[in-house]
Amino acid sequence: MSDAQRPLEIAVAIMGTEGFGVLSFLLNQWAHASDAHLNFRYLALNDGRCAAALREAGAPVTIVGGGAPQTFPGNPLMLPIMWLRSSGAMRAAVRGLRAELIRLQPDIVYSHSHYLHVLCGRARRGLSCRGVGQMHGLVNVARLFGLQRQFVCRVLARHLDLAITISDTTHQALAPVLRRRARRVYNGVDVKAIEAQTAGVKKTPGKLVIVGRLVPRKRQHIALHAVALLRDRGRTCTLEIIGGPLDDANPYYLELRRIAAELAITDRVRFAGVVSPPHAEVASAELAIGCDSGEPFGLVVVEAAAAGTAVVVPDRGGMSELVEHGATGWHYAADDPQALADAIDTLLDDAPLRERLVQAGRKAAIERFDIASHMRELRAAFEQVLAAG
Fold it and tell me: Which residue from 268, 271, 299, 354 lies 20 to 30 Å from 243 (Cα-Cα)?
């Protein structure tokens, strides 16, 4: 048996309560782990939605107990207080994780949040397993004049043998102390599955689609203003906004509804809520739009390309590096509704150009972002850590 075929035992540490994006990532990895000869066993702090979904998919999930904060506090100076309040739950998590690591004897401990990187680093002290941390988001480079970035990266560098970043954007955001022990592995999607789900879906003329949680950082309001500008130009188009939650407890959803009403475009905008999977809806659109210029990766961009829809994204952030302007998609000046409207106008007026972008975008999705490529790169990252000893 070659080294590439030797099964690696991987203990995957998760909170168990991860949101839709990370949950989709984990489910996709689980479905294809065996193809890369990786034996994943999940250790969850909590028996939440993510743990339940993995268990339903057939994954072995053990609830180890304990807990950790879900996010950093809004005020960084409150971080020590948050740690003190959570210290008992975090100590319990370390004990539970360590007991499972001793039982399982994995090659790699693969963690999925900043806090878990630290907890797993403590849990595996004195054990032979190596620590790999998945960096799903961007490290804040500006907060406290960059001091928080330096502090977080130094702490993580002490507890990880390797950090996996999901894009060059997230990679460059790391402080050098952690970047030196980081490796970029693009997220992957199951291109063949998306193609099968969208085969035969007809395009709706003038339909635009944007997919993502309804939170301010996703910046769906940029798309609303662009639609109003297109209306003023005499352009007939509609915008479908996929994502949620659609309820009065979500202030950004209410803000989007207010903006649509003020711009008098409610007849051109549909709030579809959460659609899982959204591939058929995306495939029926002529253009898929991204507005988040701070996105660390942009999985919806790759999924849209796999679904056969041309993509229009900001010219900075993780989305921009996934798309080659004029070849596999289209860039516009970030946060500028006028620039987005101009890009939409250009592409809706030029069906041959859209088709070239669709074909090249699908080819790039297969070659650069297919789940098989992701799993090969992930395995190579694990082997890199093990070879380093």
Answer: 354
Question: What value does the mean pLDDT take over residues 154-158?
Answer: 96
Note whether 118 and 196 are same-domain residues. no
pLDDT in tens, 314-324: 999 999 999 99
Question: Do 204 and 337 fall within a single domain?
Answer: yes
The reply to whether the predicted model has a pTM over 0.85 is yes
Q: For the stretch 145-158, what's the b/e string if a residue is b when 16 or more beta carbons lie within 10 angstroms of its beta carbon?
A: eeebbbebbebbbe
Which CATH number do you get for residue 143? 3.40.50.2000
SS3 track for 173-201: HCCHHHHCCEEECCCCECHHHHHHHHCCC
Rounded CA separation 167/37 (Å): 24
Domain range enclosing 248? 191-369
Amino acid 79 reads L
Please list, residue by residue across 324-351, b when 16 or more beta carbons sit within 10 angstroms of its beta carbon and e when fewer do: eeeebbbbbebebbebbbbbbbebbeee
- Model pLDDT for residues 251-264, shown as the tens digit of each residue: 999 999 999 999 99
